[in-house]
């Protein structure tokens, strides 16, 4: 039944793949589970991510971008993150909904520029748009923060199992354990290797941050693991060397993450977001290209 819907209405398929591409999975079912997990955390976040991804995908279609890239969801994931981030940081006023629409379209356009230049920037369009929006909204409006930002975190008894799972949830601004579990399952059905390496990356991110003296509460919430999850997924695979590249990428990503947070860099524009992932992954890719022979890579 669902497959028939996807066949008859390819736009829905493209939107769901765009949501799935948040964690680099070109899989409609992954995207659908991500969407469910977000709605569980916040219905406004669910509507925001659905709206922004739809706008980003529609923009790519109207501007005549490559159909294969659109079908793969490459013009949806940054737009999706713009939507959920704005709904996470601010109360859903009319201006915020307008920015979600405009931000979704702009994310698609910026993504296309880098795709054309063959520059792997991953979620950078989302990062740039949110940094600009948060700075302008904080300095030129009085829009209050969302309830998720202003509410005091509940006291939760964490365990070694819950902490790495929370890293998956925080990739899409979800702090609930159930959302994190759903996200992990969503990736596992698409790529077991990506899910397991992502879990290892989240655990390593938490451990390295703990050794670096970061906030225990923040570590338990997954705030020091979600960038590592993404970096690990990028280099996941079944080659013997994949584990080494995952470790290198996670180490670089966590190092950048901890440095920025420790020095309060980017706090005025919404925080580090997924910038440590983008920077750490790009540096690792550069190391691969510069120092490793192609036949061994």
UniProtKB/TrEMBL annotation:
One Pfam family of this chain: UT
InterPro entries, per database record: Ammonium/urea_transptr, Urea_transporter
Extent of the signal sequence: none
Superkingdom as given in the UniProt entry: Bacteria
Organism of derivation: Flavobacterium shii
Compartments where located: Cell membrane
Protein name as catalogued: Urea transporter
Keywords per UniProt: Cell membrane, Membrane, Transmembrane, Transmembrane helix
């Amino acid at each position: 039944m669902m497959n028939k819907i996807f066949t008859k209405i390819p736009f829905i398929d493209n939107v769901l793949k765009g949501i799935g591409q948040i964690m680099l999975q070109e899989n409609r079912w992954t995207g659908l589970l991500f969407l469910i997990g977000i709605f569980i955390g916040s219905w406004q976040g669910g509507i925001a991510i659905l709206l922004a991804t739809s706008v980003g995908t529609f923009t790519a279609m109207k501007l005549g971008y490559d159909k294969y890239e659109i079908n793969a969801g490459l013009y949806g994931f940054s737009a999706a993150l713009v939507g959920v981030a704005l709904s996470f940081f601010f109360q859903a006023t009319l201006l915020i909904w307008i920015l979600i629409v405009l931000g979704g379209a702009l994310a698609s356009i910026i993504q296309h520029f880098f795709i054309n230049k063959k520059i792997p920037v991953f979620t950078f369009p989302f990062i740039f748009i949110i940094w600009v929006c948060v700075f302008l909204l904080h300095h030129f409006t009085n829009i209050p923060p969302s309830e998720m930002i202003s509410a005091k975190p509940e006291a939760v008894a964490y365990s070694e199992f819950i902490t790495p799972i929370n890293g998956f949830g925080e990739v899409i601004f979800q702090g609930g354990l159930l959302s994190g579990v759903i996200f992990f399952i969503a990736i596992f059905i698409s790529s077991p290797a990506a899910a397991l390496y992502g879990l290892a990356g989240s655990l390593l991110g938490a451990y390295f941050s703990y050794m670096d003296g970061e906030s225990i509460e923040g570590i338990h919430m997954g705030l020091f693991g979600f960038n590592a999850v993404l970096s690990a997924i990028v280099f996941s695979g079944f080659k013997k060397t994949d584990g080494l590249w995952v470790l290198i990428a996670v180490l670089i990503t966590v190092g950048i993450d901890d440095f920025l947070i420790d020095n309060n860099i980017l706090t005025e524009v919404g925080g580090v977001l997924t910038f440590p992932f983008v920077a750490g992954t790009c540096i690792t890719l550069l190391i691969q290209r510069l120092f490793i022979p192609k036949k061994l890579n």
